[in-house]
């Protein structure tokens, strides 16, 4: 055994000794919660258009993309008298099984309407299997100012083209697609359009 081999255990203790004087990284969770990275993959959310209609069109692409078979979607046709999304179809049943989900994000990449995104919420533990199957009602984004709970008519603009153009806004849950003239439809424009739509329809459906 050479001299360097003899010193190896001493070097090992040196690492432990060095660590004793380093600043502790312990976080007193759950009393203290460290913010996650902005793009952390947490609980999913089903987003809405600025008038409150659902973005999900029940296409099932998210379910097909999921490697863990954690998503169940059942689409249905929109009835003009009972509309849940601006298109022909909407997601009648939507479930995510968090016992299976590995929070990989493939489902949100597959979604063609940005209906499905992921929040930073990571506190998903529970003590019953049933409560870890999240339903559509649990996943839907809350109604923000200017939104109205579906079913109701399309309230943004006079035509479908207006609807989709004014519905786009530069936020986390909506794609930022340039509008006509090179600018972007702002949240303000969308809110104004929603207001116009409501007044045109005599404030019905609240
Ligand atoms: S995050 Fe991954 S595992 Fe979870 S539902 Fe989406 S595709 Fe499936
Ligand atoms: S969340 Fe997106 S991909 Fe999944 S069914 Fe709805 S529209 Fe389709």
TrEMBL record:
Residues 46-76, 92-121 form the 4Fe-4S ferredoxin-type domain. InterPro entries: 4Fe4S_Fe-S-bd, 4Fe4S_Fe_S_CS, NADH_quinone_OxRdtase_chainI. Pfam families: Fer4_7. It comes from the Bacteria. Keywords: 4Fe-4S, Cell membrane, Iron, Iron-sulfur, Membrane, Metal-binding, NAD, Oxidoreductase, Quinone, Repeat, Translocase, Ubiquinone. One of its GO terms (biological process) is aerobic respiration. [4Fe-4S] cluster 2 binds at residues 66, 101, 104, 107. Its EC number is 7.1.1.-. NDH-1 is composed of 14 different subunits. Subunits NuoA, H, J, K, L, M, N constitute the membrane sector of the complex. This is NADH-quinone oxidoreductase subunit I. It comes from Actinomadura soli. The lineage of its organism: Bacteria, Bacillati, Actinomycetota, Actinomycetes, Streptosporangiales.
